[in-house]
Amino acid sequence: MNLQQLKYIVAIDRFRNFARAADACNISQPTLSAMLVKLEDELDVRIFERSNKQVKPTTVGQQIVQQAQKTLMEADKIAEIVNEGRGAINGSFALSVGPTISPYLLPKFIKHYREKYAEVSLTISELKADFMLDSLLRGELDAGIAISGNVRQGVLEIPLYTERFYVYLSETCWRKLPVFKPENLENENMWVMKEAQCLRDSAFSFCKARSKGQHIYEAGSIETLIRIVDENGGYTIIPEMHLPFLTEKQQQNVRKIEGDYLSQRRISLYIKNDYIRERMLNTLVDTLKAFMPQGMLSEGIVKYGIKLG
Fold first, then answer.
1. Same domain, yes or no, for 171 and 242?
2. Element (H or E) spanning 157, and its range?
């Protein structure tokens, strides 16, 4: 048994399909099938049940796959230790960014990162927090960026930046308000993101000042919310990093959220507790410094970067 064989069975378990697993391993399907038969003969145990419809691990096969995953991650750490000791910044870096964060971070992040760290093979996926944490623990990701407060055993959370929320009002709405206060919006429609918990929390906190008329509608994106407000009136909550995407006319419809209301979201970096690639993590921090609005990144991150251990 060798590491390559362990990689093959992990791939088979991940894809539950020989053709897709073989493609991911850059080998032919017959070669992958033959390797599995050889390993099962060597261990004298059946690792996967195969049929025309599906491939799934046996009870003992599932235990073997789990141990193979752990072994491969430990083997990867040896190479990481060597690279860290040499001060090298190369190899691959797999990052996940949350869906409500990625539209604002990724376009500029990718541009700056590729310019400065061309020797790093960067892969980025857009995952919700639960899927991101699962992928971290399986060793499929190096790091994830998501809303703060996602707790999972074995995962370390590092505060990254704080972003303010603003109210986006329709023109008819703000023109009839003598003074902008949440309580003056009690008869106005509020539009919120369907699956963005931080934006919803801010919006509902805003609602506490309203005694009636809580007409709440949901949409799938910030752009959709803004268009709904422009066409139908009312208001919505938008993050600070969306402001540059507004037209000059639309920017006149933006107001700060004042008072004792939830008016910001905190964004964190997530890694496994035993992650050791400190220099690689700081390539991410240095890239964010290149384009993030001043004062948004955590003070400690700006001054000292990320320190592990």
1. yes
2. strand 155-169
Looking at the fold, whether 256 and 221 belong to one and the same domain comes out as yes
Average pLDDT for the chain: 85
Task: Using the structure block, give the residue that is written with the tokens 């491939």.
Answer: 55
pLDDT at res. 173: 79
Please state the φ and ψ torsions of residue 139, each to the nearest 5 degrees: 80, 15
Q: What is the DSSP string of 37-104?
A: HHHHHHHTS--EEE-SS-EEE-HHHHHHHHHHHHHHHHHHHHHHHHHHHHT---EEEEEEE-TTTHHH
Inside any domain, residue 309: no
pLDDT of residue 291 exceeding 80: yes
204 has pLDDT over 70: no
Give the other-Cβ count within 10 Å of 239's Cβ: 22
Residues in the chain: 309
Measured distance CA(164)–CA(240) in Å, rounded: 5
What is the reported pTM?
0.71
Can you give the three-state secondary structure of 1-34, one letter per residue? CCHHHHHHHHHHHHHCCHHHHHHHCCCCHHHHHH
Query: Which of 60, 83, 106 is at the close of a domain?
Result: 83
Q: What's the pLDDT at 194?
A: 64
Q: Which domain holds residue 18?
A: 3-83
Partner residues linked to 49 by β-bridges: 56
144 or 212, greater pLDDT: 144
The DSSP result for 214-252, as a single string, is --EEEESSHHHHHHHHHHH--EEEEEGGGGGGS-HHHHT
Do both 216 and 255 map to the same domain?
Answer: yes
> What confidence tens digit (pLDDT) does each residue in 41-59 have?
999 999 999 887 788 999 9
Q: Are residues 198 and 282 in the same domain?
A: no
